[in-house]
Amino acid sequence: GAVVSQHPSRVICKSGTSVKIECRSLDFQATTMFWYRQFPKQSLMLMATSNEGSKATYEQGVEKDKFLINHASLTLSTLTVTSAHPEDSSFYICSVGENTGELFFGEGSRLTVL
Amino acid sequence: AQSVTQPDIHITVSEGASLELRCNYSYGATPYLFWYVQSPGQGLQLLLKYFSGDTLVQGIKGFEAEFKRSQSSFNLRKPSVHWSDAAEYFCAVGHPGNEKLTFGTGTRLTIIP
Do A4 and B103 lie within an 8 Å CB cutoff? Predict the structure, then answer.
């Protein structure tokens, strides 16, 4: 299956700053990537679908101006948390599908906003 | 809308004992079903999946799951657990033509000696 890598794995930032998380599909050209968010001891919630060369599709309740997604190439999608606040602290995980119905996940990025 | 229920938040099992993790889903047609495992601070690894065909599916690490349409269930089993199986387990449902997955709330598995 697809190999997915995220960077950084951990990031700590001050409140009000912006943080960018990268998701790379290392061996598969992904036209679509998915961004999930996971609060401590909770399940994964789909935030948005990243579409290569076009706008991301956000799930209901997710602020698109807060969570900027860019999918400029078939191997890279980025999630930028703008003007981060402590409530944005979470584990962010991206995934790639190979059009088989199965998803392959990155290692996740833990964001801590002070 | 599709949904997934994992009734057990936390399960403790002795090493070497058998394991069954429950998963129930709600979906209008035959879904795609998945079990993923997550170690602390890590991403998700696919254990097994069901798309169609044989309702008993084998996965990695000695896990298996059985799709029971009549019960809307897809329970995960392992005959003998190892200490390394301690992790969080997520059941997920998807459907043909759409790669969005809906996850259950997860079951934390603790292994005791």
Answer: no
> For B60, phi and psi rounded to 5 degrees?
-85, 165
Q: Please name every residue paired with A46 in a beta bridge, in sequence order, or none if there are none.
A: A36
Which residues, numbered 77 to 96 in chain A, qualify as contacts with chain B under a Cβ-Cβ cut-off of 8 Å?
A: 91, 93, 95
Work out the minimum CA distance from B20 to partner chain A, whole angstroms.
Answer: 19
Option in A42, A91, A106 nearest B105 (CB) = A42
In chain B, DSSP assigns E strands to: 3-5, 10-14, 19-21, 24-26, 32-38, 44-50, 56-58, 64-68, 73-78, 87-95, 98-103, 107-112
Partner residue opposite A110 with nearest CB, options B41, B99, B106: B41
Q: Which residue of chain A comes nearest to B97, CA vs CA?
A: A101
The confidence score (pLDDT) of residue B10 equals 96
pLDDT per residue as tens digits for the range A74-94: 999 999 999 999 999 999 999
Give the separation between CA A84 and CA B21, rounded to whole angstroms.
37
Query: Would you say residue A11 has pLDDT above 90?
Result: yes
**Tens digit of each residue's pLDDT (9 = 90 or more) over A41-68:** 788 999 999 988 889 999 999 999 999 9
